[in-house]
Design a protein that fits this description.
It is a single chain. This protein has 342 residues and is α/β, with parallel strands linked by helices. The chain has 2 domains: 10-50 and 329-340, 5,6-Dimethylbenzimidazole Phosphoribosyltransferase, Chain: A, domain 1 (Orthogonal Bundle), CATH 1.10.1610.10; 55-324, 3-Layer(aba) Sandwich (Rossmann fold). Helix content is 49%, strand content 9%. It has 14 helices and 5 strands. Helix 7 crosses helix 13 and helix 12 packs parallel to helix 13. The longest helix has 20 residues, at 142-161. The radius of gyration is 20 Å and the shape is globular.
């Protein structure tokens, strides 16, 4: 389906590192902001990097069959309600996007609702209504998986063709941390107990049910987890498969992505399995409260920029980190060089 991804040019990274070291600042004084500036210069293709004036978030929404099996603190009806809330510009991520000049759009890929009254572009590429309960059946058919990945690719291309310099991924769907945790467990060969967290805030009984669902799903799928695409079919969902496609297209097109929470990072880990090297085009916006996200970030070699205890989803943690990226760009662009001090 895809192959190895070429990383950002080493020559650009070296040039950016040289500029960083030549700034009129003490050696290493910019810490991770300096590292971030070097990464941005190499992925944006210029030293110094251009100002980040066009940053775009795509929230990929879908429902999950496991939501009917006690793995979430909220009912599945919340998913279509939140799609409408994002469309209305009133969601948490909408407020953050407005505050930080990040455009926000939502695409319904597998929402189990007619979404009457929602603008057609939101629902035009829906793959199916909901996804299978992964401990009982495959989430998707193989054809649906391919279609969802293609829709995600098209969504990324749409933003890139529109001039996006930096892409962000967001998720929306009750129960989605359960398949996301299963994807991480499958990719890293870990048991359910190591990856399952409280998601939307389930109690101890809910956490036990969620862990059991992931364990049953992994046992049902067996060695099919050796194939990342088959893993998506068995353990993912339409919105997760689309997120994988989104991340693949961005990396192949040479456009950087700021990842969000568990769902985003689980999909990134799957995309890296499909296209080794894609991870070099991604940065991690924040550390969520889910253990699977930390394990996946470590496997990808990514250190999150923020650690605020966020578990909202929607891309909110990534949007909250955007000012750090803009600051890193400004430092590498506008700080005087030592040679200019006279």
């Amino acid at each position: 389906m895809t192959g190895p991804i070429t990383p950002p040019p080493a020559a650009l990274r070296a040039e950016a590192q040289q500029r960083l070291e030549a700034l009129a600042t003490p050696a290493g004084a910019l810490g991770r902001l300096g590292d971030l500036a070097v990464w941005l210069a190499s992925t944006l293709g210029a030293v110094p990097p251009p100002p980040l004036t066009d940053v775009r978030l795509t929230v990929l929404a879908g429902d999950h069959g496991v939501a009917a099996h006690g793995v979430s603190a909220y009912p599945a009806a919340i998913t279509p309600a939140m799609v409408r809330t994002i469309v209305a510009g009133r969601a948490g991520v909408s407020a953050l996007g407005a505050a930080h000049d990040v455009s926000v759009r939502v695409l319904a890929l597998g929402v189990d609702d007619d979404l009457d009254g929602v603008p057609p572009p939101v629902t035009a590429r829906s793959v199916r209504r909901g996804s299978g309960a992964i401990h009982l059946e495959d989430a998707l058919t193989a054809d649906e998986t391919r279609r969802a990945v293609d829709v995600g690719r098209e969504a990324a291309l749409c933003e890139i063709d529109g001039g996006a310099q930096l892409l962000l991924t967001g998720d929306l769907g009750i129960g989605n941390t359960t398949p996301a945790a299963a994807l991480v467990a499958a990719a890293l060969g870990l048991p359910a107990g190591d990856v399952v967290g409280r998601g939307t805030g389930v109690d101890d009984a809910g956490l036990a049910r969620k862990t059991e669902v992931v364990a049953l799903a992994l046992a049902r799928v067996g060695d099919r987890t050796a194939d990342p695409l088959d893993t998506l079919t068995a353990l993912g969902s339409a919105d997760l498969a689309a997120t994988v496609g989104f991340l693949l297209e961005a990396a192949e097109s040479g456009v950087p992505v700021l990842l969000d929470g568990l769902v985003s990072v689980a999909c990134a880990l799957t995309a890296e399995r499909l296209a080794p090297g894609a991870r070099h085009w991604w940065a991690a916006g924040h550390r969520s409260t889910e253990p699977a996200q930390g394990l996946a970030l470590a496997a990808l070699g990514l250190e999150p920029l923020l650690d605020l205890g966020l578990r909202l989803g929607e891309g909110s943690g990534a949007v909250a980190a955007v000012p750090l990226l803009r600051g890193a760009v400004a430092l590498l662009r506008d700080t005087a060089l030592l040679s200019e001090l006279g």
